Each structure stands twice: as structure tokens, then as C-alpha cells.
Amino acid sequence: MQFWVILNGKRNLKKGGKLLKRIAITGPESTGKSLLAKQLAKHYNTVWVPEYAREYINNLNRPYDQGDILKIAKGQIKTENKLAVKANKILICDTELLVTKIWIEHKYKKCYPWILETIKKHTYDLYLLCNIDLQWQPDPQREHPQLRDYFLNLFKNELINRKFNFDIVSGQGTERLKNAIRIIDKFIKNNNYFANTN
Predict the structure, then answer these.
(1) Dist. CA 149–CA 151, nearest whole Å
(2) What pLDDT is recorded for position 118?
(3) Phi, psi (5° rounding) for residue 59?
(4) What 3-state class would DSSP assign to 152?
(5) CA separation for the pair 166, 172 (Å, rounded)
(6) Lowest mean pLDDT among 6-15, 103-112, 157-166
(7) Cα separation of 171 and 133, whole Å?
(8) pLDDT band at 136 (very low <50, low <70, confident <90, very high)
């Protein structure tokens, strides 16, 4: 049996007496977020939420604009909530709205109120901030190879200032995945996260 509940002002999915735990993979461009999300979902036998922006921009027949970023933000949350019902205890999310906030503020110098309000309400149990220790991989949708340190610090500051629970994931190849698993397992153990919540 599954149903939606409100806990600490946050809408969450309850399955079989247990609350679904959401883990966000976040950070600057070209830091392995999508690969890590896919690998973690496989490891924990669950589903992962792909980055909606990539699909959306791939289907545009023009350059994206400011309004598109709001549509992307809403599409990301909609996709996440849709996939949550298929998750097994943990939902792995490739990106979250801090990414959208930093992106739109850098490019357009302001952010939509909907994005700012949703970041406050739609939080995650754990944020994995991907370090910039991977080599930059060129991609038509990536824009700022020279600003990786700058963006990493923006993410750190956002997570710290908002008091979000996060850890930094570093490492090359399988080491990166192992480090992420270690962080998640420690977090689950310390919080007794799969105890029955009835």
C-alpha cells in the first residue's frame, strides 16, 4: 500500500509504512551526475530520475530562453513525482532545483519565485555534491568549462546556507561510485532510515 503524506511541510510518498528517501545528485556541469545516478539506482535496486533539461533542450528547434528554464524546473519535479511511485525505498535524482536556480541566475541575473519557493518545500534527505575532479567532457548543452571552481563554490554555499544535508563525492571511475555508496550507506545507518515509521 502506498500513499502521499505531508511530513514537516514536505509531500512525500509512504509505501508499506516506510517513507521514501530522496537523494539528489547535484553540482556543476560535467561532473558525472547522470552516470552516478544511474549506477546508484542499479546498486540500490531502485529507479532514478533523469535530468529533464537534457531531454527538453534536445527537443527544442531553437536556442533555449529564460521561460524555458521555468518549464524545465517544473518538468523536473513532475517527472520526479511520477517516478517516485516506482522507487524501492530510495529515489535517486539526477539534478534538482538548485541547479536550475544557479543556472538561471548566472545567465539571466534573476530567478522565478516558483523555483525559489519550490527549493524550500521540495528538499531531499541527502544531497551528493559532485566534485570537479573529473575531466571536462565537451557537450553542446554545456557552457562554462572555465568556471567550474566558481560554480562548485556556488553549490557549496547554497547547500551550507540552506542547512541542507550534503556530502561531496570525489574520485575517478569506480572509486567515485564507491565513495557515493559509502556516504549513502553511512547516512542510512546513522539515521535508521529504513525503520518502520508506523
Answers:
(1) 6
(2) 97
(3) -95, 0
(4) helix
(5) 20
(6) 6-15
(7) 7
(8) confident
Name 132's Cβ contacts closer than 8 Å, sequence gap at least 6.
27, 28, 31, 148, 149, 152
- Which cell numbers hold the place of 108? 539571466
In sequence order, the 6+-apart residues with CB closer than 8 A to the CB of 190 are none
Q: Which CATH number fits domain 2-191: 1.10.10.10, 1.20.140.10, 3.40.190.10, 3.40.50.300?
A: 3.40.50.300
Task: Quick: pLDDT tens for 49-92.
Answer: 999 999 999 999 899 999 999 999 999 999 999 999 999 999 99
Q: Does residue 102 register a pLDDT over 70? A: yes
**138 pLDDT tier (thresholds 50, 70, 90):** low
Buried b / exposed e across 148-157, counting CB within 10 Å, b at 16+?
A: beebbebbee
| Separation CA 48–CA 65 (nearest Å) | 27
Instruction: Map out the domains of the chain as residue ranges.
Output: 2-191
Residue type, 58: N
Cell numbers given for 123: 528538499
C-alpha 116/C-alpha 174 separation (Å) is: 35
Q: In 3D, which of 17, 24, 154 has the Cα closest to residue 92?
A: 24
User: Rounded to an integer, what distance in angstroms lies between the CA atom of residue 107 and that of residue 62?
Assistant: 17
Query: By three-state DSSP, how is residue 5 classified?
Result: strand
